[in-house]
Amino acid sequence: MPDTRYSRDERIRFYGQLLPRLAALPGVRSVAAGWPMPLSNTSIGISFQIEGRPVASADEPSEALSIVTAEYFRTMRIPILSGRAFTERDDTRGAPVVIVNQSFARKYFPGENPIGKNIQSDLGDGVIKSPMREVVGIAGDVKRQALTTASDPQYYPPWAQAVILSPTLCIRTAGDPSALAGALRAQLAAMDREIPLYRVGSLEDAVYKAAAQPRFQASLLACFALMALLLSAVGLYAVLSYMVVRRSGEIGVRMALGAQRADVLAMVLRRGIALAAAGLAIGLGVSAILTRYLKDLLFRTPPLDATTFLAVPAILLAISLAASSVPAWRAARVDPMQTLRDQ
Q1: Measured between alpha carbons, how far is 278 from 285 in angstroms, rounded to an integer?
Q2: Residues 123 and 187 grouped into a single domain
Q3: Are residues 260 and 205 both part of a single domain?
Q4: Residue among 250, 101, 75 nearest 172 (CA)
Q5: Rg of the chain, C-alpha, whole Å
């Protein structure tokens, strides 16, 4: 919304009319507005002071800030862990308030309840200038920059008490959110045809874009892992084939003395499985030590994931068994009479 056409109070009235109109659209469950959005790779940091802890202006802490409307936390499904969310009464006529996230509370109020404490932020919009804001709630952490980065301390003043820009619309729908774009533009045009609606997309799209680099890294690692698996299978096959050729005389003598084909087959397979088991023991031990350095690349998967540490050895043993079966089958088909004549 252009500053030259809309004053602070006019912006508040505009959003106050727009949000209910959008909430009345079919398929809309809740509507809010906020800025910056999670995973938007956009951040603004504003310094602040905590009441009772005076510091020099040069030493004031600064943390990420988001301005949001009353229904923001419910629409984005960010839980309020303690206290309350914003309401429509948190406007210019209400007392200045703020909500902090869990990381903020843990960093600046360790071992105490921040609800009821006061924070003076340097944020001002020309009407409300750096007021002392009471902490009324603690919200859950969100990812601001990327999925792999830790959640930073963050605090939220209500938008009506900090009108510094036009926040992004947040709309939760019952169906496909992209199908709502036309109705959104129509409602906005009915109020002001000169205000653009742009960057329309879903939160799912934002998550997909944020996961692009970790997805590429995972795909690259998967390709390397498949190449390593193929090389290990080829190598095991070559070692066992060489062993069968070198020991063909011994195998022929064993069979001439009464050894059965099943015995020869089992002998070669045991050799292959023993080599694979030795490699697995070393690999699992090294993996258990080094996987903690990959934890930033893992999403909802612990470094010592039991399923992974059971599935990978099973797959490797199956590949090893398949690679060992061909040399074992060749060894079991050795002709003892031909071997004796060759000797």
Answers
A1: 11
A2: yes
A3: no
A4: 75
A5: 33
CB 191 within 8 A of CB 18: yes
At 256-296, the pLDDT tens digits run 778 788 888 888 888 888 888 898 899 889 988 888 887 76
Which residue from 48, 63, 186, 40 is spatially nearest to 117, judged by alpha carbons?
48
CB atoms within 10 A of CB 329: 15
Residue 240, exposed/middle/buried by CB under 10 A (0-12, 13-18, 19+)?
Answer: buried
CA angle, 92 then 98 then 104, to 5°: 165
**From CA 161, how far away is CA 91, in angstroms rounded?**
6
Q: What is the signed CA dihedral for 113, 69, 42, 28, rounded to 10 degrees? A: 120
Domain-embedded: residue 2: no
Instruction: Point out the domain boundary residue: 210, 227, 257.
Output: 210
Q: Are residues 128 and 168 both part of a single domain?
A: yes
Would you say the pTM of this structure is higher than 0.90?
no
Domain count across the chain: 2
5 class by beta-carbon count within 10 Å (0-12 exposed, 13-18 middle, 19+ buried): exposed
- Model confidence over 317-339: pLDDT tens digits? 888 888 888 888 877 877 767 66
201 phi/psi in degrees, rounded to 5? -165, 175
Q: Locate tokens 């070393």: which residue?
A: 282
Among candidate residues 95, 167, 84, the one with its CA nearest the CA of residue 128: 95
Distance CA 141, CA 150 (A): 9
Pairing of strands 62-65, 154-156: parallel
The residue type of 157 is: P
Compute the CA torsion angle 98, 101, 102, 107 (nearest 10 deg): -80
162 within domain boundaries = yes
